[in-house]
């Protein structure tokens, strides 16, 4: 057995506390239109799980510490449960949600479940539910590539033509510990990076005053709801150009705009926002399914009524500093810095910003049209999480941004979050038009009314 990676340890401990409710599940559904070979799909799923060792790993408790036990291929059984779909679209949505919310017993179960709903002779929905301990967003690419190759091989009666994976996830888990070294060694990487974080997070507020509608409960329910949003291609292009002029990235523009919006809504001028990083620091990890992401806390200083350009420079510098010290796992940071903790909220931050580009993470089955199938997953792990996906053309041209604000219904009403999204989008439009304006001018009702004459698109809830 191999000890769980440092990032996996945190999810294992959280799963011990919340095993039954699926808080850390990752559900993905695909609509399959065309003739689907059930046996070939079952074979493809099993071969993929055998290839990707994280998907055939159980986690054993040894003295309160999780260890990975990778099952031998002969031990792997991945049932593809075939189900008759409910009669209505709403009933199907309810079934998908119910399956997605079932927790995992990681000591005994593989961190993946598969269900195939039959809607008609040539119409299916494939639901994969994975535990986050074995899966992150990047992993969907290699997962679907492997499944696609294995399915094609199965219907052609042969083995998949895969290149051997250069490393396994267990190699990464061991390498991560070796890279960081010991905190007792002042010259180790972890000691040097902890020194940075102690300075960066000194004096951080325990909690920022978000626009709460209710008092925080002692123990969160984890129930969430969503406000979708959309930026058109013209605005996307303007923001990308502004980022380039500032030596920044679109992510940094969105970060600055979110911080400015929260300040306008009364959150103060020291705005810590958590940022997930891919954590795949070597290309040898690119084809692995696994949990690599780390969480960085980036503080935005909105004090002194800066222009948006000035705020963007502040955010850029803070983000670059964080990215260059991203190797220390977040939980180790919490352990070493020992902030005031509470079961009711996350230490160091309450808001997460996740900005990605739309990648090629699509299942491809011969003769079958594969489409994204929405899954309602009403779970939130933080007070609010803003996820934005940049859409790009084949030559890198901006084609708009889609996203959603996921929020805790323990704390917020939908109208409050709708208002936050509208102000965020209006501020982005104002910044794109006149980035030299100070935040107070940009946030003035007159200025916001002017930029809102061009409609801001809020996607309808489905």
Description:
This protein is of the alpha+beta class. It is built from 13 helices and 14 strands. The strands form four sheets. A five-stranded mixed sheet has the order 5-6-7-2-12.
Could you write a compact summary of the structure shown?
The chain is an alpha+beta fold and 462 residues long.
Question: What is the number of strand segments?
Answer: 14
Secondary-structure-based class equals alpha+beta
Low-confidence runs of at least 5 consecutive residues: 450-462
Query: pLDDT average, as an integer?
Result: 91
Oligomeric state as shown: single chain
What's the number of domains? Answer: 2
What is the CATH level 1 assignment of the largest domain? Alpha Beta
Query: What is the radius of gyration computed over CA atoms, rounded to a whole number of angstroms?
Result: 23 Å
At the fold tier of CATH, the topology name of the largest domain is Chloramphenicol Acetyltransferase
Q: What are the secondary-structure elements, in order, as H or E? A: EHEHEEEHEEHHHEHHEEHHEEEEHHH
